[in-house]
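Handover notes (outgoing to incoming on-call)

Open items:
1. DUF642 domain-containing protein: sequence verified, structure written out, both below. Nothing else pending on this one.
2. Nothing else urgent.
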Amino acid sequence: MVLNSRKCRWASVFLLFLACSSAAAVVEDGSLVNGDFETPPSGGFSSDAGFSGGPTAIPSWETNGTVELVESGQKQGGMILIVPQGAHAARLGNDAEISQQITVEKGALYSITFSAARTCAQLESLNVSVPPASQTIDLQTLYSVQGWDSYAWAFQAEREEARVVFRNPGMEDDPTCGPIIDDVAIKKLFVPDKPKDNAVVNGDFEEGPWIFRNESLGVLLPTNLDEDTSSLPGWIVESNRAVRFIDSTHYSVPGGKRAIELLSGKEGIISQMVETKPNKPYRLTFSLGHAGDACKQPLAVMAFAGDQAQNVHYTPNSNSTFQKEDLNFTAKAERTRVAFYSVYYNTRTDDMSSLCGPVVDDVRVEQSGSSRVGLGGLGLIFVFLGYQFMVLVLV
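DUF642 domain-containing protein C-alpha cells:
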C-alpha cells in the first residue's frame, strides 16, 4: 500500500511537471499560431464581418480597435483588397492592433517575419513591437508588383513572456483604412562566430530571418541602425529604404543558401564595423551577382572599406551568374566600416515596377599576406633537387 501511494505521488509530480513544461514551451521557429489567419473564428469566416476587440475574435490573437478578417478578392469600393497568401488576412483600422502572447528564451535574439499590404490610407505604416522594443515601418514604398511585401524585424527578449504586437498608428476619415497583415512567423537568431581568417561576421549571410518556402519575394530588411538587434546578425541597414534577404530556392545565390539583394540605389545600404589593426594592409573580397529575377541591367555596387571606395559593375558571364571582386585598403583604426549599396535604381524587365538590384555574398576582410606561412611574414618554399635544395622566398 505504501509503495502504491508513493508511485501515485511520483506520477502526480511527473504529470504536474509535464503540464508546467507544456505551458511554458518556448516558441519554435516558423509560423506563429494562426499566423496565416486561416483558422476560422467561432462564427466562421465572413467577408463583411468585422471584429472589434475581445480576446477570441480571431483565434489565437487578441484584438483592440477595428480589426477585420478580409478574404482574397474582397472589394472595398472600387479597390480589391490584397491578401498576401492563402484566403484570409487581418486588416487594422485606425489605431487598431492585434497581438499574441509567446514564450521565448530570455536574452535571446529573435526575428519576426510578416507580410503586409496597403489599402486606402494616405500615409500607410505599421508599428511592430515586443514591448519595450518597437519600430514603425513605412509601407508607402511598394517593392513588388504583387501588391504586398514581406518584412523582418528583430528584438532581444528581456523576459520569458513576450507579446508580439502589430498596430496601425494612422488615423483616416475612413476608419477601416489601414494595413493588411498576413503570414506572421518567428525565428531565433544566432550571431555566427567570426572566422579566424575573416574579420566579417555573417559574411555569407546564411543567418537571417525566417523565409516561407512558398513565398518567392524574399524578405525586406528595413532601416535598422542597431547591430545588436538586427534581423541580419552582424549587419545593419543604414538608409531609409530596405534591402532584400533572398534564398537559393527562388533566386540565384553566389554561395550557400542565402544572400542580399541591394535595392533603391543609395537609399539601401548595408554595413558592418569589422575589427582591424591600424596601419595594416587589408583586402576586402566579395561575390557580385545577378539574382536571376529579370532585373534590368546594368547592375553595379559601390563598395566601401575604410576610406577606400570602388564602383564595381556586374559583367554577365554565360558560365556563371556571379563574379569575384576585391578592394585593397589600409586600416586607420581598430574598427573599419565595410559597406555596400546599389549604384543604380533597378526594376524588373517583366513588369517594369518591382524593385531589384545586384546581389552581394561571401564578404571577407583579411589582412594582406595573412595566408602565407613563415617567419616575419615571409613565405618559404623548399624545392628539393636530388641531394640539393633551393629556398624560394616569396615576398
